[in-house]
Amino acid sequence: MRSNSNPRLPLPQPRFRHGILSLCLLLVALPLFADSFYIAAGRPDGIALLAPPPVPGSAEEAADLASARAVFKGRTPAEEARAKKDASLSLFLFAPAIGPGFQPGKLPRTEELFDRVKKDIAEAINIPKDHWKRQRPYQLDNELSLGAPEKSYSYPSGHSTRGTVYALVLAEVFPEKKEAILNIGRVIGWDRVLIGKHFPTDIQAGRVLAQAIFRDLVASPAFQHDLAQAKAEAHGAGVVER
Q1: Is residue 202 in a domain?
Q2: What is the CATH classification number for the domain harbouring 78?
Q3: What does the pLDDT look like over 150-165, one tens digit per residue?
Q4: Does the predicted TM-score (pTM) go above 0.90?
């Protein structure tokens, strides 16, 4: 009888097959996390976390709009100029609290940390905005129009959320400047009411969402690793004024 010149190859051993399966699963999962550094998709759930904004046409909305009008009309030229500057959401808006050494290009690890945070938190802000689709104050009252219109919805305020998150993270990097840093974060949010872009309730909702985002950030080992590097870099560079 003629022998088989192509005998069957031995089957992979169980451990080897397990390794191949794990590798395949990892390769499939990588695209899911490619755009996330610290926070899992869908976290935090702003729709479940936040109370809905005032109902359109309700007395509550009217009161919110009256408050927005009063703040808008009572702003000073200096406040308006500050609000327009704060709209940039630059990390270096916090320099007055930290010190003149806090400048672009001087702390690359710190800037990289914030670039990652900025990307990570966008979804958590946009999902509730797109869910409630709240109109902005100037859409209800043309007298509150100032500057270019916004492309996104009003609730919660993205600037308030981001300003608060940035402040909370920077307060970890520079704990000795915590109170001054947090105050700037609050002002960044409130300035959006001064220029007619948001209702006061939008700002409050942004602060609540920011706290939840920050809790998710600090629970991430990757964030803690990058935060530690930012701290070492910042204090090694002597940025903080004593």
Answers
A1: yes
A2: 1.20.144.10
A3: 999 999 999 999 999 9
A4: no
